[in-house]
Description:
Layout: E1 4-6, H1 8-37, H2 46-68, E2 72-74, E3 89-95, E4 101-107, E5 118-120, H3 124-129, E6 137-140, E7 147-156
Parallel strand pairs: 1-2, 4-5
Antiparallel strand pairs: 3-4, 3-7, 6-7
Amino acid sequence: MQKFPMTAQGLAKLEEELRQLKSEERPAVIRAIAEAREHGDLSENAEYHAAREHQSFIEGRIAELEGVIPSVEVIDVSKLSGDQVRFGATVTIIDEESDEEKTYRIVGQHEADTKQGSISLSSPLAKALLGKSVGDSVEVPAPGGARAYEITKVRFV
C-alpha cells in the first residue's frame, strides 16, 4: 500500500471534509433529489439532473478520501529542524530575475494549496528545493522557460 506523507493539520482537514460530506452534503443532496422527483417528468427536470450530478461528485470525493486517509503517514513537522529543505519546511525564495519574494510550505500532495502558500512535495518547485539550504540557487522548469530562485530562509513551524 502506498503511503502519503502529510502534516497532522492536513490529515485533520481531510477528515473534517469527509465528515462534512457524509453527515451534511450527502443527506442534503438526497433531499434535493427527492424534491426534484416530485416535480414530475425526470427526463426534462434540470433540478433532478443537477442534483444527481452533485451526488455523483460527492460520492466520488467520499470514495477518494476514504482511499487516501488510511494511507496517510503523518509527519510531525514540529520535531523537524535544520537549514536543509525537507518535507514540512517553510521556504522563502527570491526570483533571481524579478526579485519577487515568495514563501511556500512543502506538504503532501493531498493537502497542497498554492493559494494558501503550500505546494506539493511532488511539484517541480518542491523537487528542485529539496535537499538545498539557505543561499543555494535552484532552477525550476516552467512553461515560459526555466526560472531561477535563491533560497533565503528555511524554517519548520
